[in-house]
Amino acid sequence: MDQLWINNLPDDVPSEIDVEQYASLVDLFETSVSKYADQPAFVNMGATLTYRKLEERSRAFAAYLQNELKLNKGDRVAIMMPNLLQYPIALFGILRAGMVVVNVNPLYTPRELKHQLTDSGAKAIVVVSNFAHTLDKVVAETPVESVILTGLGDLLSAPKRTVVNFVVKYIKKMVPKYHLPQAISMRKALSKGRRLQYVKPVVKKDDLAFLQYTGGTTGVSKGAMLSHGNVVSNLLQADAAYGTLLINGKEFVVTALPLYHIFALTVNCLLFLHKGANNLLITNPRDLPAFIGELEKHPFTALTGVNTLFNALVNSEAFEKLDFSELKLSIGGGMAVQRAVADKWQGITKTRLLEGYGLTEASPLVTCCPYNLDGYNGSIGFPVSNTDIQVRDEEGNVLPQGETGELFAKGPQVMVGYWNRPEETANVIDRNGYLATGDIGYMDDKGFFFIVDRKKDMILVSGFNVFPNEVEEVVALHPKVIEVAAVGVPHDVSGELVKVFVVANDKSLTKEDIIKHCREHLTGYKIPKLVEFRDELPKTNVGKILRRELRDEAKQD
User: Hey, which end of the chain has fewer CB within 10 Å, N or C?
Assistant: First the structure.
């Protein structure tokens, strides 16, 4: 398949770059903190963390992991928190100790958390106190030996710290009761770590940096093994695509997506650290008035998010009144950007809303729209540098330009494989190193790629993967349910909603019963919003439920 995009890239965007500039994320980190030492690195809740402070505190955290917890290179350490200053300290502390970061969504239910901690073999976890009650329920059934606890306000200055933690716990009652007597506070860990010797390990590009969990066509989430080389490559690829717009040491980026999400992790946290940017961490982007209030305070130059967030912003009067004179880069990732949202965004901010496409298994960026695009064109853009994409038919034949088939991607950002799942790895990465994306699309005559459908049954809610099998398993646990099928139906705000079709053995079963039952076992975004009762579900001749048929029906409603 001809690489038509190469001739249509902006003049200053290379199709090939040197991805070996840094041996690891540790090298890249050390370069940035030395170069931008006294500049602000992260801002959250009015407190600032400079690059120097980030270096000192992450080193102290690394020393604590090495000496006090006696953890070794390659051990897995989980982080379970929203966007706080504690996150980059823990993240870079773990990486600098040569260990592997396991990102955990803090909204996980006990069942989801237990699977991830057990599957990854995590020996320690850093958790914010608001979610410690979830950990308390399962920690005894996991390999976790050490718990490091932090309060929302722990890294703020003295009087503010006490006030924030008090309000969160006693006024807003956002910290449910938990019992973790062995836990140590992160503040104490950092204080101890300062007095301990940090030994820099030899970290090579093939060493694992992250176990980033994603679902798949089967219900259980799997850990994508992302090496230092994978992630360094991907942030340099993003830099090659958009670096022309960005000035080193001068950017102010807004991070509203959680850093445990692979898109925010690679682009917001790591790319902008490499650029020496100041990074505004938004802890709760759902609180729109507070979020816009934060935006008012800062002349931001870059903002990334998912379509859901951009849609909420463009429909807010307060947002329209902001000063966008400094804004030069807006990127949507995690889910498809809708034309209506992109057009509104461009109308209000006078900047283009550019789409990046990828998947966890590719660290995540595979394609992105060129920075000089006139406006929304419905495409996912061109492949990033050092990346090839093929369109293949069902038999695996490479199709010519214009024909529709499954997209396969190859590049240095493609994961090592799934953690402890060699068979599943072999199912998605072929012997030539091409990754099956599960997305159906085509390439136009300029090299732009377009996605028309998803091969997998996966449901995408506000940029988060929901796997029908998992939802079905939970619904099926209800004693009054005989059969269930979960599908995604289009939704203007979140992209898709989860809908379940249920065959019940008792007519007294209601929609509310199903939703209440799901709340006990599933994170919020996975809970079905729509429930339809049926006498029977459509099936193949071997008895497999035809989700696609149900999905098509639901779309027509």
Answer: C
Residue 411 lies in a domain: no
pTM of the prediction? 0.88
Nearest alpha carbon to residue 35 among 302, 280, 301, 275: 275
User: What are the CA-CA distances from residue 395 to residues 177, 391, 392, 410 (Å)?
Assistant: 55, 11, 8, 19
Provide the pLDDT for residue 135: 98
Residues contacting residue 91 through CB under 8 Å, at least 6 positions apart = 58, 79, 101, 259, 269
Q: Check: CB of residue 365 under 8 Å from CB of residue 237.
A: yes
Using left for φ > 0, alpha for ψ between -120 and 50, and beta otherwise, residue 473 falls in: alpha
pLDDT at 541: 60
- The three-state DSSP-derived secondary structure of 460-494 is EECCEEECHHHHHHHHHCCCCEEEEEEEEEEECCC
Enclosing H/E stretch for 278: strand 278-281
Q: Name the residue range of residue 520's domain.
A: 459-556
Q: What pLDDT is attached to residue 465?
A: 81
Residue 217 has pLDDT above 50, yes or no: no
Number of domains in the chain: 2
Within a 10 A sphere around the Cβ of 479, how many other Cβ atoms? Answer: 8
Burial of 193 by CB count in 10 Å (0-12 exposed, 13-18 middle, 19+ buried)? Answer: buried
Q: What's the token pair of residue 291?
A: 């979020």
Give which of 100, 51, 407, 369 is closest to 238, Cα–Cα: 369
Q: Tell me which DSSP letter residue 429 carries.
A: B
Q: pLDDT, tens digit, for every residue of 255-312?
A: 999 999 999 999 999 999 999 999 999 999 989 999 999 999 999 999 999 888 898 8
Residue 192, SS3? helix
Q: Which CATH number is 477's domain given?
A: 3.30.300.30
CATH of the domain at 169: 3.40.50.12780
Q: Which amino acid is at 109?
A: T
Are 333 and 358 contacting, i.e. CB atoms less than 8 angstroms apart?
yes
**Dihedral angle sign, alpha carbons of residues 142, 147, 151, 155:** negative
Distance CA(29)–CA(242), nearest Å, equals 20
What was the pLDDT predicted at 221? 86
Please report, for residues 251, 260, 310, 320, the alpha-carbon distance to residue 347 in angstroms, rounded to integers and kept in the order given: 23, 31, 13, 10
Picking from 303, 336, 368, the residue at the C-terminal end of a domain is 368
